[in-house]
Amino acid sequence: MPKLAKSLSAIEVQRLIEPGHWSVGGVAGLALQVTPTGARSWVLRIKIGNTRHDIGLGAFPGVSLAQARQKAGELRQQIAEGRNPVQERTAAKARIRAEQAATLTFAEAAERFIKAKSPEWKNTKSPAQWRASLETYAYPVIGNLDIRLIAQQHVEAILEPIWTTKTETATRLRGRIENVLDWAAAGGFRQGDNPARWRGLLDKRLPNPTKLKKVEHFPAVPLDEVFAFSEDLRAMHGTAARALEFAMLTAARSGEVRGAVWSEIDLKAAVWTVPAARMKAGKEHRVPLSMQALDLLRALPQVEGSEHVFTAPRGGALSDMSLTAVMRRMGRSEVPHGLRSSFRDWASERTAYPHEVAEMALAHTVKGVEASYRRLDMIDHRRSMMQAWADFTQTQPTTTADVVPIRREAA
């Protein structure tokens, strides 16, 4: 390999284009390395202790001859001072790799949180709902931001535009951001207080959501219209119409009805047992079936290959909009969930059944004194109530509202 003992000029270095290791002088061991492909770079060949090293100083001409000589001189000075620049470089690269491994953007953290926690979520739509809200509101502000850098001002920038106009969405979003940041802190990806925390932090900065949002109850079918509604509904054809009728007779939620399978139904005992996994409160719920509900079930065709009580035309469960579509075809503005409100109004205004019995029929979560009733099934009380409700839905209303008495069970 040709050797150059003298100190080359910048023009002479520019002319070095043949492959080789060309000493350029100026600093002992400094050379320009030319590869067979024509690429050129600076190398300082140096001995540290008993080991020889080739230390790269950058590509030419990006790093000029003068800059290469300065870098080479600084490295030789470090060695003269007892330092090992090779080890220092290796350690620096290791630190960078460790920092990169520990670096996580908010979007990456959110996805990992959703993946880790979604198996425990009862609603299969929850992961999609989480992603949708975060992608819409959070990601434009902090999606690509290192999760260690997320501060209170970022969270407020996300929430403030929608806090008073989309309060429910905003409060859910705040909770989701808080959960993702807690997950990141538990994994060592960030330190310090959670900037999305409500109590003691954001509650001092944002209005109380309970004082902002207007409680909107699901519109109920007026009690004086329940008979006409029931009559029109029974005249409707189709599986969705029968599912809606069954929902009305049982005061059950739409999702519970649409997900019902035949193994949950005991026609002989006149009981529908909804497993805890399909209940909002996460507790098994027994529904006593009225004679009308039993007649409806017995008249249903059992679709071969389907375990669902109400099977969609293409198989599987009915969609969440199928029952609403029936009400729209009937010319109603209410929603299926409003039938539960109709049942609750009837129990309060037209009967003498205790409040807690009606709440249990609706599978509402209760606290305080009422919670003690959860230790009892009270199915006999509820059976008479559900039969009275079914009779009410199919009885022509009179000018005066009669209060339904509680029938004492035979001893």
TrEMBL record:
Domain Tyr recombinase: start-end pairs: 216-387
InterPro entries: CB, DNA_brk_join_enz, Integrase-like_cat_sf, Integrase_catalytic, Integrase_DNA-bd_sf, Integrase_DNA_bind_dom, Integrase_recombinase_N, Phage_int_M
Record keywords: DNA integration, DNA recombination, DNA-binding
GO molecular function: DNA binding
Residues in Core-binding (CB) domain copies: 104-185
PROSITE patterns: CB, TYR_RECOMBINASE
Pfam families cross-referenced by the UniProt entry: Arm-DNA-bind_3 (PF13356), Phage_int_M (PF22022), Phage_integrase (PF00589)
GO annotation (BP), single: DNA integration
Family in the record: Belongs to the 'phage' integrase family.
Protein name as catalogued: Integrase
Organism of derivation: Malikia granosa
